[in-house]
Write a structure and sequence with these properties.
The protein has 141 residues and is an alpha+beta fold. The relative contact order is 0.16. Strand 4, helix 3 and strand 5 form a beta-alpha-beta unit. Strands 1-2-3-4-5 form a 5-stranded mixed sheet. The chain has one domain: Gcn5-related N-acetyltransferase (GNAT) (Aminopeptidase), CATH 3.40.630.30. The chain has 4 helices and 5 strands; from the N terminus they run βααβββαβα.
Length: 141
């Protein structure tokens, strides 16, 4: 299967189980999360992109942007299923998310890169924010 067999699209809804499978592949889904919240998670995002097989329609990757739609935007939840990695799908998802932000005049676009993934984002225009430290509220353990 090639990238030509995959459709990258902005969506306002998607099958919750497929999205949960992607969150699990990223290591971000916890058993206590409510699957019924997936539609609100998608519709509440400024932009939500799904990479789906054209033939089956099954989601194999995703990413989203949180933003007020005016000034700043934060990309998060970028994931591609393991069997589909190395085909530039992550690049295509990020490119579509960045394009959507820029279409709305948003130029300040940030993300937090996971350990070892910084080099993936550099060719896409992202640089390290020297002097800044990402923080999280509460205990994330």
């Amino acid at each position: 299967m090639t990238t030509e067999d995959i459709r990258i699209a902005l969506v306002r809804s998607w099958d919750a189980e497929e999205i949960i499978a992607l969150y699990r592949a990223g290591g971000w889904w916890k058993d206590e999360y409510d699957p019924a919240e997936i539609p609100r998670l998608i519709s509440g995002s400024f932009a939500f992109v799904v990479a789906a097989e054209k033939r089956s329609g099954r989601a194999v990757g995703m990413g989203r942007v949180l933003s007020d739609g005016v000034s700043d935007a934060y990309i998060q939840d970028l994931v591609v299923l393991p069997g589909y990695r190395g085909r530039d799908l992550g690049t295509a998802i990020i490119s579509r998310l960045v394009s959507r932000c820029r279409e709305e005049g948003i130029s300040w676009i940030a993300l937090i890169a996971g350990p070892g993934s910084e080099e993936f984002y550099r060719p896409l225009g992202f640089t390290r924010m020297e002097g800044h430290v990402p923080l999280i509220y509460g205990d994330e353990s």
